[in-house]
Amino acid sequence: MTEKLSENELLQQRRSKLADLRKKGSAYPNSFRRDSLSKDLFAKCEGISKEDLEKKSLEVSIAGRIMLQRIMGKASFITLQDMKGQIQAYIRSNDIPDGQYDEFKTWDLGDIVGVKGILFLTKTGELTVHAHSIEMLTKSLRPLPEKHSGLVDTEQRYRKRYLDLITNPDSLEVFKKRSQIVSSIRDFFITHEYLEVETPMMHSILGGAAAKPFTTHHNALDMDLYLRIAPELYLKRLVVGGMEKVFEINRNFRNEGLSTKHNPEFTMLEYYTAYADFNDQMDFIEELFKSITEKVLGSTIIDHEGTSFDFSKPFDRISLKEAVAKNLSISPETLDSRDFLVEAGKNCNIEGIENLSDGKILFELFETLVESKLINPTFITGYPKDVSPLSRSSDENPSVVDRFELFIGGKEIANGFSELNDPEDQAERFKEQVSQKSAGDEEAMEFDADYVEALEYGLPPCAGVGIGIDRLVMLLTGAQSIRDVLLFPQMKPKT
Q1: Which of 115, 127, 117 is nearest to 46 (CA)?
Q2: What architecture is the 2-144 domain classified under in CATH?
Q3: pLDDT-based confidence at 147, cuts 50/70/90?
Q4: SS3 134
Q5: Cβ atoms 235, 200 nearer than 8 A
Q6: CA–CA dist 442, 438 (Å, integer)
Q7: Domain 167-315+376-485: CATH class, spelled out
Q8: Which residues contact 299 (CB under 8 A, 6 or more apart)?
Q9: DSSP 105
Q10: So where are the chain's domains?
Q11: CA atoms within a 13 Å half-sphere pointing along the CA-CB vector of 424
Q12: What pLDDT shows up at residue 131?
């Protein structure tokens, strides 16, 4: 109770200070303009001696949040934080307008202020702005978390990301790196002559992936719509239209559980290339990942939970059946037996095993036994046809499709395949999906007649890939949870 009262008193003190500012007509001004940022000033003054810097008499205007204060009688130091870092300011009563110093001494940690002054180096060599004027720009009414520990409560960091960014430099760095990753991806595709597009976020027909949707209602049209689970079918319509190389970086929505690897809305890169197959796309991904890591990390080698990956080297490639067989220490041919598959599925506690096709059982075994063990970058190929309704069947084995998934650090990072461009085959697969939905499969797709019609005009041979941006950022930043790379992750409301 004492802490609560003390906090209330502190809030009241700050509100009282704001009231004084309002009386003076100086609350929330918007006339101050800075001309310099902390990191840029450090770079500009690197290698300059104390004496030479004094001779230059460099005048600057800086602004930011007060993170540290050393308030003394006639002279004080503060540390300001801006978008690029922190820099110190020196405030002496004789150097600023009359009465301003006494007012300054009442300011609090968290206040946002502007400082104009001359750059100099202290006796300890710290770059500092010697103020000749200082101005309150925004009064902080709530105290920041304790400066030494920052915002350490994980849930509070997610719920109050703004405080996390203010007080935890490592967290801010993750999101800066995320921005760099997305920018490097976009640059890579534009360099390779891909066209960036935007496709609808609300779909009238459920398709593009196997997932549970979010449903909404359009009042004017009086119809239910789905928040998109994937942009795939729209992007392939564009390839039909002659956009032979397209990509989109945008949100998908899936009405599923929350975990360290899943959030109901997430960012995907999805792209399609005409006159290419899934093998071409695996080669392309290796090139893409090499480019991203070089640009963002400065190296193709990354460390992930004690394991090093070199993205300049070819990734491993193995079929799904071979991966399961290797895990079970059996020959791949053994997995052709339904009796063996059912027994293995029961041993792994796969639900409804008797009602699943052989391909679905094999896929479930892979997810249960193998997926988390794929630490080194590995392409898994040879997916069963009945879990890949949009993929082109293999010419060598019609029971599997020309599809791959990329796993790194035990997580799926990318999914790609040679696209099914046979409209009659696609129609039959949609019919099978409808049957599965009628049988209770909530993740099955619907029959998209318009998409089939588009295929009837002719989809050139092509291949497409989806890459989860959030998981990629986790990999390249070392984050343990997807919530650490989402600015505002979905949270259960506080009760």
Answers
A1: 127
A2: Beta Barrel (2.40)
A3: low
A4: strand
A5: no
A6: 9
A7: alpha beta
A8: 293
A9: T
A10: 2-144, 167-315+376-485
A11: 0
A12: 97
